[in-house]
Amino acid sequence: MEAVIYTKKFNGYLRSLQEAGHKKIVQAVRAAMAEAGTNGSISSLPRTKHGESRLKNVEKFDLPGAYRLVVQLVDGVKKTRAFLFVGDHDDAERWLDSHRNYTWVKSPTDGTLNFMPATYDGNRHVPVDRLDLDSPESELQAPLLRFLSDDDWSNLKCNDNQMSLAKRITGAQFEQDADGILVKLDELGDYDSASTLFDLFVLAHNKDWAELNHRVLIADEASVVSEDNTLQAEMRSIANAEHFVTFDDEGMLDEFFGKKTFSDWMLFLHPEQKKIVQRDYKGPVRLRGVSGSGKTSVLVHRARFLAKKYHQPVVLVTLTESMRKLLEKLVDELCGAEKSLIQTKTMNSFARDVLSELQVRINFAPLAPEAQQVLMEDAIATLKDEAGFSKTPMGSMQELELRNFLKEEFEYVRGRLCPSEFERYLDSSLFNRRGRAIALNKSAREMILKVVVRYAAGVESKRQQDHELLVSQAVERMSKESGNVGQYRSVLVDEVQDLTELDVVLLSKLKTPEGEVLAHVENGIFLAGDGAQSIYKRGFALKRAGIDVVGRSVSLKKNYRNTHEILTAAFNLVSKFEFSDTDEDDLRRPSLPDFAKRHGEKPWLIQCQNQNDEVEAVANKVQSLLAMGQTAGQICIIAPQNRLREEVRQALTNRDIQSAELRQDIDYESDNVKISTIESAKGHEFATVFIMGLVEGVMPQANIQAHEESREASRLYVAMTRARESLYLTYNPTPGYPASRFLMSIQDDCKEARYRSGEFQLIEA
């Protein structure tokens, strides 16, 4: 089969057709790709009557229903074709006109190819259709090249007069008089610099941010334009794995089209991601990845790689049920026959399965919130009855502060120690409690230990179970069983930073189907996470828990999800705090991510007069987005409080807008707007995200200590980085609940508005 090259942007066009129900068009494209691979040509489809000369070596074919397919011959010897565009006649004409004289340009820095204008030889072209109907008016009135840095301008080699003009040109001006702008640039300077600036206007107006960035880099290096005889090799190189995939086997083509999802992540991996997916590791490996770096994609691809390598079961483990469902969906989309070897579990269900394998029957129901409250009230009453309680730091705490303190201490102790080890809590040299600003002496620890034991016994006495009980029982039984064998050849864990130490200890004791300890075998354990996204106050050290990743720690620093503006605001929120990753003793500030080149609007801070207005503002904005064509499933409303989530759900219902809890519906293409907690939203991404209720006492929570502020900032960071394109943060301040302190941290990175009488009123900076 001749190679058929499939571009990432073409995948997006095909996915849009599939989602719009144009199955015959998709089938025709599939047939054309198979024919190009089998025969080295496409003869079953008619060529357009007048041919096509706007792009080099391009072929344009007629498809059913007046649709068009645009293909480029990238190797005349081997008849290799790259599929560039598919759409209706009008869209095809617009695409060809706006891409006239585009060529493949190799970056001088990383070797990646970009399809973009690089005008050097006199073949200038001014696109006819320049109207941008999607961007807000405020964006069209902003300078097109506002995102270029001083270094970028220096690289362009244009003179001061050209630069002064270029910095002022807005999107609206480019739409109205592109020809006049080009003439003026020519008058102010030389031909080449004027051509380069005009190329940048075209790319910025099209929001082709990656291409714009590369065009700046080759401002005076025309020699890097790829030659025809090397173009195919460049497209197939590892440097371009993120943008191209080559089908050179019809079975691979059939498998991909058979899934009918056309998800980018299934085909296109960044070279660094691909290396991590396919590498063999001699022991446990730790993947650190900034938010939006593709950790989940790497996990699923690696699970597939290991299932096909060993032909034995592997398991993906995560924290929440909504994330487990997402992993399950991604596995279903990606995998073929090997899918039967890949399971997805929450950490809770995984511990339950371990006990089941060891013939330990757990018939208890999950601990009900009401029962937990009764046990906590009993613990508080018992603690207050202790002689000397008033002399401890706990004696001066308010009721809510004491309750929160004890809840976290219980989870911390029970998440680190099995009941048979509880006495170790009394020895600070054996149990060095991190992340708590309140120091407790031995007497205070003895009091707490007494109520910890009472609380744990109370859980069992009610014939109920919680996560800490399940995991501790699994660890204790695993420690006693020397001859047991495991079910899985490999375990891959997401959001590892939020595990308890006993969770990690349990992982360290797992065995392969052959009885080998997973922590000691090749490719046995793969842990992924990001300390800056910690939303639970737990803490552990991998080595102490029995897992050694020394020399096997890899990282992903490039953010692919968020626009530059969203990530700037989110990162500035957490950049001043220190977080632990897989060692609670190692606190450090988060690494500066490699920001995406995509740009968009700054996040919005929306001030409302009361909660009713806040709910109305969000519901009305959602209604407006849907009217403009946004898919309902690509909108998520995150609210910390259950009451606020219920009110916004009802407001959507009143507007005939369907909604669903994210944990119940993880389909991004469904007709349901998603409503979620921060915890359930973790790991997901949406085109538009609303975060509600951002006032003191809610975000951050009431009565937090100074050392707890970082965790609350991390929770908001997680919520903010769910948004790919648009982000709205809403609040209704009152004397007792002013605007969240976190909003002040990101105020300079956001736009602000008031919601009054049904309208959004811009607050000038």
From TrEMBL:
Entry EC no(s): 5.6.2.4
Gene Ontology molecular function: any one: DNA binding
Reaction(s) the record says it catalyses: Couples ATP hydrolysis with the unwinding of duplex DNA by translocating in the 3'-5' direction; ATP + H2O = ADP + phosphate + H(+)
The protein's name in its UniProt record: DNA 3'-5' helicase
Species for this entry: Halopseudomonas salegens
UvrD-like helicase ATP-binding domain location: 268-576
PROSITE patterns, sorted: UVRD_HELICASE_ATP_BIND
Enzyme class at the top of the EC tree: isomerase
Binding site for ATP: G289, V290, S291, G292, S293, G294, K295, T296
Swiss-Prot/TrEMBL keywords: ATP-binding, Helicase, Hydrolase, Isomerase, Nucleotide-binding
GO biological process: recombinational repair
